[in-house]
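hi! just following up on the protien thing from before. the input was this:
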Amino acid sequence: MFGLVSLAAAEPTQVDVRVISKGAKFVGTSMGGAEITIQDAETGQVLARGKTAGSTGDTDKIMREQQTRHSPVSTKDAAVFHADLDLEAPRRVRVTARGPLAQLQSATTVSVTQWVIPGKDITGGDALTLEMPGFVVDVLSPPAHKKLSQQKEADDVEIRANVTMMCGCPIAPDGLWDANQFEVAAIVHRDGTKLEEVPLKYSGETSQFSGLVDAIEPGAYVVTVYAFDPANGNTGLDRTSFVVP
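and the predicted 3d structure came back as:
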């Protein structure tokens, strides 16, 4: 007599994924969220895809309260992506986050692999949380490929950029994210040759930094604006260009 071999039934398994900005809060709706992809690490099969939604979380809980190691910092409203997987067997999954989606010039990608067991939800505490390094740097002036029509206009070109944490958290002198602790500067090239590096100072408006570049010689200028935190190496940048005829 032969025994019957039954196929294992798929079990619903929930995985909650959060993305937290390095040195700051969760990447959520206010920054367009972060795109989350969950796939089988061995086969590449996509098991779930979506984006984080919700708030940046509780500032005091994340940034001010002293936490014991591995104690959760997320709250119910903190940005999250809920994935519902139907698993017939344990899977090693790769979870990838890309964002913030509202500022793609500063978007970056982080990923992690982890085993998931059918029926064993990953929802407790902060669940599966990825740390996203970087700053959101958005050059406001000059706009890309601006042609300066007058030599006087070219003599003092203002470089202005908006700089925030990846969660959109604001930067200001002596603030929770202290402008005095970050380095913001513009690297200037003309026709492919580096000319100078100009420090950008806090402009008096939250998260904005500015400085002047002398663009006396004709040519195509490319400006790379970066933000750097010497305390932990966190780095972000954006680029623009202008032409002096």
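Residues 135-244 form a domain with the Immunoglobulin-like fold (CATH 2.60.40.10).
Confidence is low (pLDDT under 50) at residues 1-6.
cheers
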